[in-house]
Every structure is written in C-alpha cells, then in structure tokens.
Amino acid sequence: MKTYLYPPREAWDDLLSRPLQQENETITARVAEIIERVRTEGDAALRDLSARIDGVELSLLTVTADEIAAADAALSDELKTAIRNARQHIETFHRAQIMTPVRVETLPGVVCEQRSVPIHRVGLYIPGGSAPLFSTVLMLAVPARIAGCAEVVLCTPPRKDGTVAPEILWTAGLCGVTRIFKVGGAQAVAAMAFGTSSVPRVNKIFGPGNRYVTTAKQLLGLSRVAIDMPAGPSEVMVLGDETARAPFVAADLLSQAEHGPDSQAVLVTTSPALAEAVEREVAVQLRQLGREAVAERALEESRIFVVADTDEMVEMANRYAAEHLIVEMADPETVAARIENAGSIFLGHYSPESVGDYASGTNHTLPTSGWAVAYSGVNLDSFCKKITYQRLTVEGLRALAPTVTAMATAEGLDAHRRAVTIRLTDV
C-alpha cells in the first residue's frame, strides 16, 4: 500500500481516484458488441459467448430442478445453518422497511394517496467465478420476496464443468428462486434486458459485477431496463484514530482486497504510528490468505493517508463516498453523523465490514466508484414502485379550480384548463 503523509487538499481528488484496468472506451465498445449479439441472436449468442469467454460448452442454459435438489448434498449442515441464520437477520431488517400507505386530504374534497406496488419481474445477477457470491442471493432474493415480486429470475456464470456452484443453487432454493440460468457477464445482463428463448425479459436488474457487468447495466439502463445502481468493484475506507487496533484495520482492508484485483482499500488516520503499524500488519496477514495473489494486486492501488485532524478525515470520507466506510474511532457515532456520502457505515472497533457482507441484516449491494454521493444501497423500496392516487369530489374540484386554471392559462395549456372548467360547467 502507498502511504501519503498530510497530502494537500488540492491533491485529494487524484489520490482518491479508483483503479482502472482498461480504458472505459475499450470496455464500452466490447460490451456494446455483446449486447447487440444477444439482442439479435438470443440463446445462440449466449452459448457462443459462454464458450469463448467462460470456456464452457452448454447445451442447456437453464438450471434444472434436479440440479437444484442435488445441491443439498454438497453443503455441510454447518453452512446450511449459517445461511438460514443470515436469511433470518436479513429478512427481519428488510421486513421492517415495509411502507405504510399514505392517505392525506390536502383540502376538503381532495384526497391524495401513495401506495407501494411490487415490480412484477426482477432479474438478479449473482457473480460466480473464483468466489461465487451466494450471500448476494440472500441480499437480493429476500427483499424481492418480501416486496411481493411475482417472478424472480437469476443469472450466474457456470463453472468450467458447466455446473453452477451448489452454494448458489441451495441458497436460491431456500429463498424460493427456481428460475436460474447459467449465463454470466455482460451477456447475462443483455439476456435479462431483451429476453431470449430461455431467459425471460425482466423489468429491473439487480446485482454487482465486474466492469463489464456494470457497463452493460448502465448502457441498457439508458433505454431498455431499469437497474438498481452502478455497482462495480468492491471498496472500503477505514477511518482510524489512535484507539484503532492495527490488526483489526489490516484485516478490514484485506477483506476488500481479496474480492478482486480491481478492488480498493483505503485507510485515513490522524495517527502516523497507526499507519506504520497497519502497513506492517497488512504484510503479515496477506501471507496468510488463500487469495493472496488477488489481494496483493488490489493493494497496489490501495492507499494509506495520514491527515491533520478529524475534520480532514470527514472531508476525505465525503469526497471518496465509499461503498463501505468503517469508523474505528473513540467516538464513531459523532464522526458518522457528519458523513453524507457512504453506502454503508460500520461503527466502532467490533463492527467489521464482513458482518454486513453476510449476516447482520443490512444489504451488501451498495453503490461503488463514488456513486454513494447520489445512490442508496439496495433496500426493500428498490423492488417496489410508488403509485400515487387522487380522488376529488365536486366540491373539491370547485375549490381547486381557480389554482389549476390560473396555472394552466399561464403555461398556455388550454386543454388542461378546459378539463377542469368543462366538468364544473356540467355540474
């Protein structure tokens, strides 16, 4: 990790930039080509892309009921219990988010309402590859079911032998998701956006992924399908003062670095001693990881900043707008109250980011790459639409008419004005 001692504010934006593996233009062009192939060729494109990109020849894109059932034998009872416990915590937190319908009489005879209506068909993208994220199945399928989505479609990349990780299949079955397809990458996003002979078209797509998946979601979100948010490579920022413990901080940084080579981990501290201790501890813990090579590459673009005071820590955190923000300080609540931009915040020395990834109850599908300045993480509302209603009596329309007709006349919209006056003339 690179350490910066008291960097000037004018250098912060450059120092806080996210790592890029390739030029965005190159990725966008490649993704656009994949999208067009899926749009025009459907399943044939999915099979060809799976062979070329994933190295897997597939005759059937759909996961069968037998494959889902067989996953049960592949998981230990310990893991099944853990997944069930995590599901319960996630369900408890998201069920508490159910919105009470709003009904207000804005003036006598004019009643306005707002109700939450589930999105009919949603698509879930679950990353596979070297670390199949079955925890993401819980984070997306549980709120989709609580919201009342009628259909849930799941796409995930196949393994080299053409199967799907049993952890993903078992977790999906636990959540009642049975429409599962062996499709990954940008082509999976395109398939759910357009629909193919095998994969149904959905109304909204959820889930994190690499730069190709994120780019596909953004391109198709412009015209074809709704998306949850931009959610690319994982990232964490830790705010630590002199009370922070170097082994804890190092473990938090490495828990993000092991996600992928384009992940980023950042420490901001007022303590030069902590910065040095964390750097040493990261080197020690790195050698103990099964994904050491992946984490080591991510650390090349990770940072340690020593700043003057808490005010600079807060300002740097708000500029970075981290997906995960861990506040390992003596008074974390006071500091967190000043944070405006973050996907999810973890308070104190005993709240590692990994609990949010798996089982505390909050959602781990969060905005990355600075999008936390404007986006929320996935929550129950993400799977719903808010529809408003209004009902007027004759008296209500008569009372509101002067306001509406004056405004319509000022905007030159005669039909708007007449839609009111013709009714009043009738009565």
TrEMBL record:
It catalyses: L-histidinol + 2 NAD(+) + H2O = L-histidine + 2 NADH + 3 H(+). One of its GO terms (biological process) is L-histidine biosynthetic process. Catalyzes the sequential NAD-dependent oxidations of L-histidinol to L-histidinaldehyde and then to L-histidine. One of its GO terms (cellular component) is cytosol. This is Histidinol dehydrogenase. Transmembrane segments: none annotated. One of its GO terms (molecular function) is histidinol dehydrogenase activity. Zn(2+) binds at Q256, H259, D357, H416. HAMAP family: HisD. CDD domains: Histidinol_dh. Belongs to the histidinol dehydrogenase family. The lineage of its organism: Bacteria, Pseudomonadati, Bacteroidota, Bacteroidia, Bacteroidales. The gene is hisD. The active site is at E323, H324. It comes from Candidatus Rikenella faecigallinarum. Signal peptide: none annotated. Its cofactor is Zn(2+). InterPro entries: Ald_DH/histidinol_DH, Histidinol_DH_monofunct, Hstdl_DH.
